[in-house]
Amino acid sequence: MTYHDVTILGGGPAGLAAALSLEAQGLSVAVLERAPQGPWAEPAFDGREIAMTHHSVSILKSLGAWEHIPQVAISPLREARIETGRSNHPLTFDTQGRGVDALGYLVSNHCIRRSLYLAASRRPGISLLAGTSTRHLRRIGDEMTVVHDRGEITCRLAVGADGRFSQIRRLQRIGAVMHDFRRAMLVCRMAHDVPHHHVATQWFDDGQTVALLPVNGGASSIVLTLPVEQIERLRTLDRDAFNAEIMERVGRRLGNMRLVSTRHAYPLKAVYAHRFAAPGFALVGDAAVGMHPITAHGFNLGLKGQESLAEEVGAGLARGESPGSLSVLRRFERRHRLATMPLFAATNGIATLYTRDEPAFRVLRRAGLRVADAVAPFKSMVTGLLMDRQRAA
Ligand SMILES: Cc1cc2nc3c(=O)[nH]c(=O)nc-3n(C[C@H](O)[C@H](O)[C@H](O)COP(=O)(O)OP(=O)(O)OC[C@H]3O[C@@H](n4cnc5c(N)ncnc54)[C@H](O)[C@@H]3O)c2cc1C
């Protein structure tokens, strides 16, 4: 049996960020990750390009992770366009008048994971345990015991960070609202002849949704949303046929296109936990709030959540309260609910409105874009939300 102040269950980007933030509060932290050491430390490309706000970048800088991301892997996002159907009236967002050169930054998920792992592995107060699965959690008095397949850890706070289909959430008997969009996303990188000028496009076409995310090196990340069976067909389609089909699907707007990465598919299921806190226990990352990727906020909110948790734990320590005290964790829960609930609901609404093909939905979304583009305060608010420059470096 070993002791750490905090045990994090799940060493993904949210769990590792939480470990770094809580260690910075002077706590000793263990991180238990199910994956073996190799892929944990050096994760492979998984197709996800994460659009990060300015606030998220400032968090990664303060955690010592940003410096481990190679400059060439950071692609600035200068403008975002939203289009619907074949009508030529896009809604656009840019940085004009905001004193910065980018709305946000695109970084591959595996680079973010690697940078956080590297930062955590250099902290004396963090122990990283790879290849370790949690069996159950027990609370006795003020302590939590985490029973895993290689032994036991006692701690004052256990944090569930094992992703949206969280087993730890179930072990703690915390329910969740789950929204199944009955669609999947195919993601991959493609090189192309026509330059993207660092403009991202989200196109809600009839029968499909396509996002083109501009990355460095004359390439874009393609994010295609379709019914599950069609995504599976495309994922395994022969390369030449795949290139030809994607060129057609994006309306040939990027010229000749060539697949330059592996292809990955993700089911579209959004999750919101009924509670984020229990005595001696908290949920962070997708285990707490698993967003539909359409508004690119999942990881940004995961970073905010772990930041709120560490700040509330730090404030509690200053008052002499334990990191696992329910009053400390309830403060975190309130903050995180306020930060996430409106966006979660709005994102699900947008995802439904923009992916249904009945005539009423088509008319509504075209009208919605025209109105939104004409209302300057609305555009300004959305741009502010996309950038999230609160306390940015
Ligand atoms: C296609 C796509 C595009 C996206 N784009 C964006 C974007 O542009 N912007 C944005 O902010 N977000 C985006 N997201 C969301 C973002 O990827 C997630 O929010 C983020 O990866 C969640 O991190 P996490 O650490 O909570 O969970 P995960 O990344 O799922 O990590 C969970 C970790 O826990 C481990 N684990 C699982 N079970 C156990 C267990 N029982 N015991 C121990 N370890 C366990 C897993 O091996 C894994 O390492 C996107 C998501 C997708 C699918």
UniProtKB/TrEMBL annotation:
SUPFAM superfamilies: FAD/NAD(P)-binding domain. Residues 5-314 form the FAD-binding domain. GO terms for biological process: ubiquinone biosynthetic process. InterPro entries: FAD-bd (IPR002938), FAD/NAD-bd_sf (IPR036188), UbiH/COQ6 (IPR010971), UbiH/COQ6_monooxygenase (IPR051205). It comes from the Bacteria. Keywords: FAD, Flavoprotein, Monooxygenase, Oxidoreductase. One of its GO terms (molecular function) is FAD binding. Pathway: Cofactor biosynthesis; ubiquinone biosynthesis. Belongs to the UbiH/COQ6 family. NCBIfam families: PRK09126.1 (NF006593), Ubi-OHases (TIGR01988). This is FAD-dependent hydroxylase. It comes from Komagataeibacter melaceti.
